[in-house]
């Protein structure tokens, strides 16, 4: 109760309803409450209902715990707690009460999230599934937090695995833990660092219709959670072949992307790299965005990665079609971004068209010359490229 000073409260009574299939009322406890020096009587003659009446010679004062009701659990589950009545004195001063609920969850050994009485790698797989948002039926969250940080993550699964193989001799869980919500990978989220320090992308590569995107750790890891989004209807997967044999992986696809949780007993070194694969991307130039959590550290954003097939060396094709009467094109491959200027000259050495004078990003580009304003004759594309000066000839016909 709150705001009792100078209210002359000398009595109260209330009636509370609860789910008798979940809870069974036992008694009241006055010690340490505002009712400690009062006479308190309780009755639960009707299942799922308790009535309490109390009175004292000195008025209640201050704020705090009015009274404790003691229940014993009947079975696991959730029971609503609904006030049927609550009255101070004979209704003056008026009082308002808020309904609530209580959840009963009995737990076996710490780590035994399946509830079969044993702690095994199967329990670790359940924790990983909870970490990616696919919590299995019957999951006992009260046994899933051996790190005791108040949340359920892949690192908890790692500790269960270490206990299963004998690296750890005991586990002790925190109470009331819940799976962490993955950070949205495509938009900013409070609590996720924008400057990457945990890991970084390596350049992507394309084989047929599948992109490979390696991620390299910047620090050792016992557990990982990664959340990726890709533009379009792409298929995202993790190549687990580079993981140590004792590691486990869980994957869950949501409307916001794909979430991976990884854990094992062998720590991954700071320079460890693992590839993701992205297949059936709608078009080159699609963006991959992501968040990463290492162990139970604060999550951070991975920089957005544009899927561009970057060639290993510079190359410039011949002009096509050649001869031409409308337009002419040539293909260029850049292993890294560069400033380029390419001009078109006639046989007299006069510059007639500037084809390009700008910065090009690494990747593959197609350049097009509009020849509608050129007279019939032979022309040359001349420029300075990262591999040195180039020249390509073509002919315009009318």
Question: Explain this structure to me?
Answer:
With 398 residues, the chain is mostly beta strands. It contains 2 helices and 26 strands. It has a 5-stranded antiparallel beta sheet with strand order 3-4-1-6-7, with no helix packed on it. Helix 1 runs antiparallel to helix 2 (154-164). The N and C termini lie far apart (96 Å).
Catalogue the unreliable spans: 184-191
How much beta, percentage-wise?
Answer: 35-45%
Shape: elongated
Mean pLDDT: 86
The ordered H/E elements are EEEEEEEHEHEEEEEEEEEEEEEEEEEE
In short:
This protein is mainly beta. It is 6% helix and 44% strand.
Task: Using brief descriptors, characterize the structure shown.
398 residues, mainly beta, 5-stranded antiparallel β-sheet, elongated
Per-chain topology:
Layout: E1 11-17, E2 23-29, E3 39-43, E4 49-55, E5 68-73, E6 77-88, E7 100-104, H1 121-131, E8 151-152, H2 154-164, E9 178-179, E10 199-201, E11 205-207, E12 210-217, E13 221-230, E14 235-238, E15 248-254, E16 257-268, E17 273-279, E18 287-294, E19 300-306, E20 315-316, E21 327-334, E22 338-346, E23 351-360, E24 363-370, E25 377-385, E26 388-396
Parallel strand pairs: 8-9
Antiparallel strand pairs: 1-4, 1-6, 2-5, 3-4, 6-7, 10-12, 11-12, 12-17, 13-16, 13-18, 14-17, 15-16, 18-19, 20-21, 21-24, 22-23, 22-25, 25-26
């Amino acid at each position: 109760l709150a705001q009792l000073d100078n209210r002359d409260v000398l009595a109260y009574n209330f009636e509370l309803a609860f789910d008798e299939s979940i809870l069974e009322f036992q008694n009241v406890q006055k010690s340490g409450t505002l009712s400690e020096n009062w006479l308190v009587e309780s009755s639960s003659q009707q299942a799922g209902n308790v009535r309490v009446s109390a009175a004292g010679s000195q008025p209640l004062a201050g704020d705090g715990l009015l009274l404790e009701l003691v229940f014993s659990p009947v079975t696991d589950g959730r029971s609503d707690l609904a006030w049927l009545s609550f009255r101070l004195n004979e209704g003056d001063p008026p009082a308002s009460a808020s309904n609530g609920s209580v959840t009963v969850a009995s737990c076996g050994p710490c780590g035994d999230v399946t509830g079969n009485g044993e702690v095994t790698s199967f329990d670790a797989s359940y924790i990983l599934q909870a970490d990616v948002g696919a919590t299995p039926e019957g999951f006992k969250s009260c046994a899933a937090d051996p790190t005791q940080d108040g949340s359920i993550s892949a690192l908890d699964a790692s500790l269960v695995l270490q206990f299963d193989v004998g690296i750890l001799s005991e586990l002790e869980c925190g109470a009331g833990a819940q799976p962490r919500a993955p950070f949205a990978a495509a938009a900013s989220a409070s609590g996720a660092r924008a400057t990457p320090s945990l890991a970084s992308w390596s350049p992507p590569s394309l084989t047929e219709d599948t992109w490979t995107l390696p991620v390299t750790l910047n620090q050792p890891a016992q557990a990982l959670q990664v959340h990726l989004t890709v533009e379009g209807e792409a298929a995202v997967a993790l190549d687990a072949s580079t993981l140590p044999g004792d590691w486990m992986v869980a994957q869950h696809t949501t409307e916001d992307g794909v979430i991976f949780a990884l854990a094992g007993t062998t720590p991954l070194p700071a320079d460890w790299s693992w590839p993701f694969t992205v297949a059936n991307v709608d078009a080159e130039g699609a963006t991959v965005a992501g968040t990463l959590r290492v162990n139970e550290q604060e999550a951070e954003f991975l920089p957005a990665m544009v899927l561009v097939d970057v060639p290993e060396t510079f190359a410039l094709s011949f002009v096509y079609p050649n001869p031409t009467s409308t337009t002419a094109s040539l293909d260029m491959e850049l292993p890294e971004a560069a400033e380029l200027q390419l001009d078109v000259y006639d046989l007299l050495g006069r510059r007639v068209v500037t084809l390009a004078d700008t910065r090009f990003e690494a990747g593959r580009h197609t350049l097009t010359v509009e020849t509608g304003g050129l007279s019939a004759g032979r022309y040359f594309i001349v420029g300075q490229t990262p591999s040195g000066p180039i020249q390509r000839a073509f002919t315009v016909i009318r």
